[in-house]
Specification:
Number of strands: 14
Bound molecules: 2-acetamido-2-deoxy-beta-D-glucopyranose
Largest sheet: 9 strands, antiparallel
Shape: elongated
Distance between the termini: 45 Å
Order of helices and strands: HEEEEEEEEEHEEEEE
Structural class: mainly beta
Oligomer: single chain
Strand content: over 45%
Radius of gyration: 23 Å
Helix content: under 10%
Length: about 200
């Protein structure tokens, strides 16, 4: 019998090692910066990270469009370009970049609010750009807070330590279209959560 138990033990141990699933990759957010635009001028853009650093919350102090008799001139349309740096593990990782814009919106009769964004990533590849978000007075006449989810598939192949920081760039704008000069509305992107949901090894 001597030697039998160690043999069984080591056979079980290697079976467990084979059955163990590959560890799910963890993608963290390193930083976010404004690249310019009247919706995110210097000093009016900031961000926070979740404790585990997997979610970055961008905070826009003045990314807000207005229409109506007392609206500031040229405030119907606002722009903001920004970049978020993700840190990927080595190897191939695929997942979904989830951008969740939110804020206050109020649209008088017939006004529409639109948020349009083009996303790119470097290095790596993204799936199709998300459709414009369109809000109408039918839903938002009374005013309230919205959140919307934009999901963009992503794939990264990281070959060495120096490639691990990956820059996700957005060129975004929001604008209001009004049926006439007398109706009042406003639409803001006040915050946006950005993360990579369900990253998996590919
Ligand atoms: C990548 O991000 C890390 C933070 O996780 C930072 O310390 C490092 O300087 C960055 N590297 C590059 C090349 O930007
Ligand atoms: C708002 O959107 C609706 C539906 O897409 C469209 O029919 C309408 O013309 C738009 N209104 C304005 C003022 O652009």
């Amino acid at each position: 019998m001597r030697g039998f138990f160690p043999l069984v033990f080591s056979a079980l141990a290697s079976a467990a090692a084979i059955a163990e699933p590959r560890q799910a990759p963890v993608v963290t957010v390193v930083s976010a910066t404004s690249l310019g635009g009247n919706g995110c001028p210097t000093g009016k853009f900031s961000y926070t990270l979740s404790i585990d650093k997997t979610v970055g919350t961008l905070i826009f102090d003045v990314y807000r469009g207005y229409v109506g008799p007392t609206a500031p001139p040229d405030s119907r349309e606002q722009f903001c370009d920004f970049a978020v740096v993700f840190r990927f593990p080595l190897g191939c990782t695929s997942g979904t970049i989830t951008a969740i814009p939110g804020g206050y919106i109020q649209l008088g009769a017939g006004i529409n609010g639109t948020f349009s964004s083009q996303y790119t990533i470097s290095p790596g590849t993204l799936g199709p750009n998300p459709a414009n978000l369109v809000f109408t007075s039918a839903q938002w006449a009374a005013g309230g807070d919205y959140t919307e989810v934009q999901a963009i598939p992503v794939k990264e192949t990281i070959r060495n330590e120096n490639e691990r920081n990956v820059t996700f760039t957005a060129r975004s704008r929001l604008f209001l279209t009004a049926p006439g000069p007398d109706v009042t509305g406003q639409f803001g992107v006040d915050h946006m959560d950005i993360s990579i949901s369900q990253p998996t090894v590919c």
